[in-house]
Amino acid sequence: MKVMGISGLPGSGKSLVDEVAIEKGAIIVSMGDIIREEAKKRNEPTKETAVNLRKEFGNNIVSELTIKKIKKLQEEQPDKLYIIEGIRSPHEVNMFKENFDDFIILSIFANPTLRFERLKIRNREDDSQDYEGFHKRDVTELGFGIGDVVALSDKLIINESDLESCRDQIREFFEEIQP
Known about the structure:
- This protein is an alpha/beta fold and 179 residues long.
- 59% of the residues lie in helices and 12% in strands.
- It is built from 9 helices and 5 strands; from the N terminus they run E-H-E-H-H-H-E-H-E-H-H-H-E-H.
- The protein has a 5-stranded parallel sheet, with helices on both faces.
- Helix 2 (31-42) packs across helix 3 and helix 4 packs parallel to helix 5 (90-99).
């Protein structure tokens, strides 16, 4: 396996997977970063760009941009593990499975209250500081199909205890897939 995906709602712990993966020598390609780059080009909010890109170019646009980026990176570093962070729809999963052999999904889950507290601390541009905005973002993400992606993932890690316990679970997962 050369490419795998990470999914989970905002604040669930995808960045913890990134940290462990980088320790293992993987290269992270964040679909959220791709959307943020597009939002900057369009001079519009990230949330708006995520919806508009799909309306303008179809449900697969973000995955198409991600595939293009990974294939370019693979030309330079073909033996690396590439991790796609932030998969949100079954359409995206299908595209990745069509383009990358043995593609699997790891999903991270945490309850909404815990995720909201994490996002308030993280305080990124697209993180709401009020619960209503946070909930609205979750509804948007679920509308993309992220619940289906999480439900059908190859591995699910629950991230509701301390960070080190979650890191240990993630390390165990990487040992299973890359002995």
